[in-house]
Every structure is written in structure tokens, then in C-alpha cells.
């Protein structure tokens, strides 16, 4: 496959956009080469500016769980746009999607919509701090909660890839209120709690980590944190920007049967438009302006086009009783196929998977936290990435990213991918 026009477009973009991209991972720095410029997409496929067709395993980093250009979403956006694209005033549509989201997700009474996952997480910790009247938060090494200052303390994928875990521009003052813990290490979490008794407003976690590859929580880990939170008046925040409406209707809370105090959303909830949200029980949500003292706002929050897209997406997921099982089966099939081919070709690897989130690591040791995720062989990953790309298969351009399986993928697509892995594995 040739990428001439993409290279040319990238060169033009670099002149007027820093690094040629509006989000760093898109620049292909971790894998080399130049990024692919997309012209259109439909179902499981991307069509690029050079006329190549690619099977898409990233799906806009998650939102296109039912495939690209999903008709109910596209139609709703077109119809809504004709009625006006933004008012800065309430619409009935906002209540409709809020009510549906609240009915699908356990343990939440109210939800507020914002424009990105970053905004959702940033607002969630402000709310937690206001509610508990405490300053400190705990986050886990390798977990990503967007690019707001408080979270750029050894953040996930993007920052790891660029070797800048602590971004310049984040002040010491901000950093001192973010405490770091190790994922899947409850003794470490206990020690952090112990050293900061009654000072911790919230602990925020990706209930399945997805920004250092896909890392499931070890058995009992989330439950043990729940207990620590209950004992110390700390709020437990599930960042479900990735897992929400993906692992189950009710996300990780439903999958693991654990109650979070605040939940954040993004990605799937917007159906491919810029949407984030955070939600909690009444007692906490009523602490937000205009009811309560914690301020949070947005000119385009609850935007009608974005809400129309999100509503159609949630409706489709809610109406399909088999969707999450079907996604699980497709992803398990892919996992098994890839594992067989890599094993047959004597490649050292680990595959992690939860539902439709999957990652391939080029190291034999189990990948359970940021440290073990960092041990993977990046040179092998680069060859794997470019090998797949040549076969017309697009995976994330970084070894620290999860693949997001879409229901639009057919078993023929999966078999094609597994056979491509066999071919590439012979050269690894
Ligand atoms: C993508 C992501 C975010 C940030 O969302 P944006 O919409 O990119 O700001 C936050 N948390 C998690 C877990 C994510 O995967």
C-alpha cells in the first residue's frame, strides 16, 4: 500500500498545526512513518486519502462501537442540524439522553454533560473536592484521565510515548495534591491512604485500565479500594470514559458489581461527537452549580447535535440485548486466533483482554501494571504495526494502546486479520 498523498498532507499540516496533529498519538512518533489521513469511513473500514481501505481496530479510540457512519446517528445529526446547531439554552433532548443514561448505569441519579472525557474527569475531581472539603486525590501510574493539570502526573499512553510523564506547565502546587499509587497493588494503595489520613477527597481509577494497553483489575482489587474509601470518607471515582457503554450497559460498575461514587464518561456516550459526562447519586450531584457551590459550566455543553448523536448510540445499545455478548465473542475469537499464530511462530507475547478491549504485548511476563506494560519490546511492536498496516489493517500506533473492537467487524474481517498476523509473525 502507498501513502503518498497522506505524507504530502502531513507535510502541509506540519506547517500550521504543531506536529501536524491535534492530538499527539496521531503523529505516529512511537512507530515511525507518517500518519494516515482519512477521507471517510463506513462500518469496520477506513478509506484514506490514497484510496486504501483499512480494517479499523481503533474506531476513533472507542466511540464507533457499532461501526463508522452508523446510520441512526448520522441521520439524527443531519435532522437536528436543520433545526439549529446551538442555542445555549435547554432542550428536551438533553433530558431524554440524561434519563436514558441514568436508567442504563447503576448507582447514578443525575448526570451532567460536558464536551470531552478530559472535562468530565476534571469536573469530577472538583466536585469530589468540594463535596468532601479535602484537597488530595489518588491516581494510578499509567492510568489516563485526560490532559487536565491534576492528572498529568505520570499519565498514560500519550505521555509515556513522548517520554514526558510530567508535563512542563503543570505547577508543583498542583502536582502536590495528586498522589500516585500502583495499579493492582492494594498494599501500595493502603500505604498511600495511611500516609494521608483524612486528607484524600477521591481516588480515581480506570476500572479496566486501557491507556497502558488493556489491564484488568486483579481479583478483589476494586473491592478492597471500595472498603478503604468507605472507611475514610473518600469518594471512589470510576473513570469509565473508555469502559462506559462498552463493557456492559452499565459499564464496569455492572460488570464487576462494584459501586462507584462518581462515574465519568466520554467516547461511546457521544456516538462520535465531542461529548463527556459525569454522574453520581443526588447527594453529590446536587452539590453542583446552580444547586450547590461547586462551579462547572460550558457554552456548548449539551449541544443538540452531540446529544442527538449520543442519544441514538445509547438507544441502539440499550435496545440490543446481545450486543455486549456479541462483542465479547468476536474479540475472544480474535484473541484466540492471534495467540495461536504468534505461538506457532515462536513470538514472545502476552495478550490482555476484557470484553471488547484487547492489547498485544511483546513480552512473555504478565502485564498487570505500568511497570510490566513498559517492558514490552517496542521494536517488535513497530514491525507488527507496520506489517499489519501493509496488509490493510489499522491498530493503534503505540504499544501502550488498547484496540477497540466494533460490532461492524465480520468473522471474515477477523480471519483476514488473523492470517495477516501469521504472515507478519514469520518476520518478527
Ligand atoms: C480518552 C480518555 C479520557 C480523555 O477523554 P478525551 O475525550 O480525550 O478528553 C479520559 N479517561 C480515559 C479513561 C480515557 O480513555
TrEMBL record:
InterPro entries: 4pyrrol_synth_GluAld_NH2Trfase (IPR004639), Aminotrans_3 (IPR005814), Aminotrans_3_PPA_site (IPR049704), PyrdxlP-dep_Trfase (IPR015424), PyrdxlP-dep_Trfase_major (IPR015421), PyrdxlP-dep_Trfase_small (IPR015422). The keyword Transmembrane helix does not apply. It catalyses: (S)-4-amino-5-oxopentanoate = 5-aminolevulinate. Signal peptide: none annotated. It is found in: Cytoplasm. Its cofactor is pyridoxal 5'-phosphate. One of its GO terms (molecular function) is pyridoxal phosphate binding. Its EC number is 5.4.3.8. Keywords: Cytoplasm, Isomerase, Porphyrin biosynthesis, Pyridoxal phosphate. Pfam families: Aminotran_3. The keyword Ribonucleoprotein does not apply. GO terms for cellular component: cytoplasm. The modification N6-(pyridoxal phosphate)lysine is found at residue 267. Homodimer. HAMAP family: HemL_aminotrans_3 (MF_00375). This is Glutamate-1-semialdehyde 2,1-aminomutase. It comes from Flavobacterium macacae. The gene is hemL.
Amino acid at each position: 500500500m502507498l501513502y503518498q498523498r497522506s505524507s504530502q498532507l502531513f507535510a502541509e499540516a506540519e506547517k500550521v498545526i504543531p506536529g501536524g496533529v491535534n492530538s499527539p498519538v496521531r503523529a505516529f512518533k512511537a512507530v515511525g512513518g507518517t500518519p494516515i489521513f482519512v477521507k471517510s469511513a463506513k462500518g469496520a473500514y477506513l478509506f484514506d486519502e490514497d484510496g486504501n481501505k483499512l480494517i479499523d481496530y481503533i474506531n476513533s479510540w472507542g466511540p464507533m462501537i457499532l461501526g463508522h457512519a452508523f446510520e441512526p446517528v448520522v441521520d439524527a445529526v443531519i435532522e437536528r442540524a436543520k433545526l439549529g446547531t446551538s442555542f445555549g439554552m435547554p432542550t428536551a433532548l438533553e433530558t431524554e439522553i440524561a434519563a436514558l443514561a441514568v436508567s442504563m448505569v447503576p448507582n447514578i441519579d443525575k448526570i451532567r454533560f460536558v464536551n470531552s472525557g478530559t472535562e468530565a474527569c476534571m469536573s469530577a475531581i472538583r466536585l469530589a473536592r468540594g463535596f468532601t472539603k479535602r484537597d488530595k486525590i489518588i491516581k494510578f501510574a499509567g492510568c489516563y484521565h485526560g490532559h487536565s493539570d491534576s492528572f498529568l502526573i505520570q499519565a498514560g499512553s500519550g505521555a509515556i510515548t513522548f517520554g514526558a510523564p510530567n508535563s512542563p506547565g503543570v505547577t508543583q502546587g498542583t502536582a502536590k495534591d495528586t498522589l500516585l499509587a500502583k495499579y493492582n497493588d492494594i498494599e501500595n494503595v493502603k500505604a498511600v491512604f495511611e500516609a494521608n489520613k483524612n486528607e484524600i477527597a477521591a481516588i480515581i481509577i480506570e476500572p479496566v485500565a486501557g491507556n497502558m494497553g488493556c489491564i484488568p483489575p486483579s481479583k478483589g482489587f476494586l473491592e478492597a479500594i471500595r472498603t478503604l474509601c468507605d472507611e475514610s470518607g473518600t469518594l471512589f471515582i470510576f473513570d469509565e470514559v473508555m469502559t462506559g457503554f462498552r463493557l456492559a450497559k452499565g459499564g464496569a460498575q455492572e460488570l464487576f458489581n462494584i459501586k462507584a461514587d462518581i462515574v465519568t464518561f466520554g467516547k461511546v456516550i457521544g456516538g462520535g461527537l465531542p461529548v463527556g459526562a459525569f454522574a453520581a447519586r443526588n447527594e453529590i450531584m446536587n452539590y453542583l452549580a446552580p444547586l450547590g457551590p461547586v462551579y462547572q459550566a460550558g457554552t456548548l455543553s449539551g449541544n443538540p447535535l452531540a446529544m442527538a448523536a449520543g442519544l441514538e448510540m445509547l438507544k441502539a445499545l440499550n435496545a440490543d440485548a446481545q450486543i455486549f455478548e456479541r462483542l465479547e465473542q468476536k474479540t475472544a475469537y480474535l484473541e484466540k486466533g492471534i495467540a495461536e499464530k504468534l505461538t506457532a511462530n515462536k513470538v514472545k507475547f502476552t495478550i490482555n483482554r476484557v470484553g471488547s478491549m484487547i492489547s498485544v504485548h511483546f513480552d512473555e511476563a504478565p502485564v498487570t501494571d505500568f511497570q510490566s506494560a513498559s517492558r514490552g519490546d517496542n521494536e517488535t511492536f513497530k514491525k507488527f504495526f507496520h506489517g499489519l498496516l501493509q496488509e490493510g489493517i489499522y491498530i493503534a500506533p503505540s504499544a501502550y494502546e488498547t484496540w477497540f473492537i466494533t460490532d461492524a467487524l465480520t468473522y471474515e474481517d477477523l480471519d483476514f486479520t488473523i492470517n495477516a498476523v501469521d504472515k507478519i509473525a514469520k518476520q518478527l
